[in-house]
Amino acid sequence: ESKSRFLHGYYQFHKRPLRDYLFLFVESLLPLMSIFPRLMNFLTHTTLSRLFIKWVLGLVDMPTVSTLWVRYQLRKRRVLLRKGEQLKQMDTHKLVILIQDPWTRFYDAQVFIDTIDLLRKMGYMVKVLPYFNTGKSAHVKGFLKSFEKTVHRNITYLNQVASKDMVVLGI
Predict the structure, then answer these.
(1) Concatenated DSSP letters for 31-91?
(2) Residue 87: which region, alpha, beta or left (left: phi > 0; alpha: psi -120 to 50)?
(3) Which pLDDT score, from 0 to 100, does residue 32 have?
(4) Phi first, then psi: what are they for 13, rounded to 5°?
(5) pTM, full prediction
(6) 52-89 pLDDT, tens digit each
(7) 3-state secondary structure at position 125
(8) In angstroms, how far apart are the furthest CA atoms of the chain?
């Protein structure tokens, strides 16, 4: 939190590096990157691309996009919230709603799927919200105005699909 506020204040008077703007859009690009994970991993892990990513983004060790087909895994388990499905009308006693954290969902997908399986084995009914931008990149880089807009949009969405007595987890 304090780093984000510092960066926000600092860049009110100083020019932001291009890498901050590129990093800001990574969260939005991840769903596209996950369509062809092997191709993306190849493109981002060649010697030339590693040098480019280090120079432009300042990232030394780019993670690999998970090759696990998460959408298929969610459909197979029948846990993805369908359009028009209302969580507010479900029995909330054993209901757990999962928000797809972009970094876990796209880079460490097996942990995400294993969490669903564990919760189900513990007797919980799991529902996974469709992926949406959480604003994590904006917060990390101090784009607080963008982050606040994203937070307000997400709060509006979550208030529409869930009630206050429901358990909501970001994995």
Answers:
(1) HHHTTSHHHHHHHHSSHHHHHHHHHHT--SSPPPPP-S-HHHHHHHHT-BPPTT--GGGS-
(2) alpha
(3) 92
(4) -120, -5
(5) 0.85
(6) 888 887 888 889 999 999 999 999 999 998 876 777 77
(7) strand
(8) 53
